[in-house]
Every structure is written in C-alpha cells, then in structure tokens.
Amino acid sequence: MATPCFPTLSAAADAAQAIARLHAALAIARDADPDAQPVDASVRAAAYAAARRLGFIDADAQCLAAAWERRCRALPFDPHDWPDDPADFDLSIPSASFAPCPAHLGLYAVLPDADWIGRMARAGVPTLQLRFKHTDRDRIAQEVRAAVAAVRGTPARLFINDHWREAIAAGAYGVHLGQEDLDALTPADVQQLRASGLRLGISTHGYAEMQRAWSFGPSYLALGAVFPTTLKAMPTAPQGPARLAHYARLARALPTVAIGGIGLAELPAVAASGVGSFAVVRALTAAADPEAAARALMQAWQRLRTDTATP
What we know:
It is built from 13 helices and 8 strands. By secondary structure, it is of the alpha/beta class. Pfam families: TMP-TENI (PF02581). This is Thiamine-phosphate synthase.
C-alpha cells in the first residue's frame, strides 16, 4: 500500500520546489522556441512520473501533471509553488451550485442512529451526520425522520448520509454523498436535489475526485482519509496532513471538512493544514463519556483556530 506522500509540510515544500525547478527549465526551453510543442508533453510526463514517485494514484497523478503543465504555460512562472490554484486544475465556477453552508462547520460528528444524533445535538455539537446503514427503505425513512426531530430546537445542522430522497422528505439541513452515490445520480436527480434547497457535501480522496465533486457546485468538500481508519475500506492510502494542506488550499473557495482517523492527538496537525472543519466517528462513539469527549474536541479546536489566526 502506498504511504502518504509527504510526512511533513516542509518535506512537501522541498519536493514541490524540486519538481518545479525541472519544469521551470522546460518552460525556459519552450520560451526559446514557442513552437516546440514536445516541451509541454515533457512537462506533463515529468510531472506525472514525479507524482507517481510521491505516491499519488494514477488518476491524481494525471490531474497533477495537467496542473503543472497549465502552470508552466502561465508566465511569469514561479518555480516555488505547488499547484494549488483552481485555475491550475481547470476548476471554474459551476453554472449551478447548491445552497451554501458556513465556512467553518466546527466539530462534525458522524453518527449511526437518531439516538446518537439527539444526544450529540444536546451536547452542543454544531454539525451532525446520520450515517444509517440499512436495506429497508421504510426503516431508513423512519430513522431519518427521527434524526430530524432529534435536532429540532437545537442549533445543530443535520446532514443525512446517502439517503437524499428521505432527507428531502424529512426536511433535513443537508445531505452527504460519496463518489459511488454520485455515480447513481441522474441529471434529473441532481436537479431535484438542488431544487430542494438541501446543502450538499461530497466525499473526496484526492485531486481527481475533488475535480469531479467541484463540478456539482457542492456546499462543502470532505477531504480524507487523513489518517488511518478502520471504519471502512478507503480507495486511497491515508493522505496525511501535508496533502490535506494542499487540498484545503486548492478548495479554499468552499468549506472543507477533514475526515479519517481524527482525534484529540491529531487536531494540531489538522488545524495547521488550514482546513475549515473536522469530522469524527470513533472519537465520540467509542468514548467512555461522549459528551465530555465532544467538549474536549470543541475546546481544543477553538483554541487551535485562535492560535492559528493570531499573527
């Protein structure tokens, strides 16, 4: 299994500069002969090979190679910057977007049933997700309605994982979809979901999935898995906090949520990445005192955000 590409942010910067210097040299050669099209091909090939050596999966390496090529075409070219601008990845403003949500969603608790939703809403957790796995549609609809009722009278924002039709019917705040859920959506489904006014969050695990999610005009992007997690099989190796920082920078026009293996010990690295919020599962559901765990997470995040914002 591939390892996270960079163990530290400084290592990420060093690697970025080493790759960029090679590309800068190719760009200079291109400028000497503007008709030398093979140079752009060399830029893409070199960037792809470098990205693969850094542990990126094929789809993400392809995205990075195209981003480096676009960056090399733009003058003046800064060889010290890793591609992290939407223009580098050809990300334009979608023609239609989902309803917005706050840039900072705070502690985002992913929970298994309506009882947990109500418990954490009463504990003051600001953002909640019902991840209820069941095959009976009536049972799913019942649980979604119960979760919506459980947050009523609290300031908590409730997202429903997967079950977007039931979320619309119950009047939830939003819905969260994975990449496989996007596969199942028809254009008519997307139109219905957008017209409902629900906020849409989308799971992403790298550059290629971020590009795809961006095209939907989502309310937020979930970025992960940052650290190892045993809760589900992931399509990529843990991304690590350094990649998270690059993803958060690229997606800075949208709210972002870090997810995957996050607890109190991981919060400083997550906060340093610049991501807007963080999601947890076992840090609450496996805690001896979930309410106390929630308070500790929220207080630590507030303190870290304050420290990060202080000049």
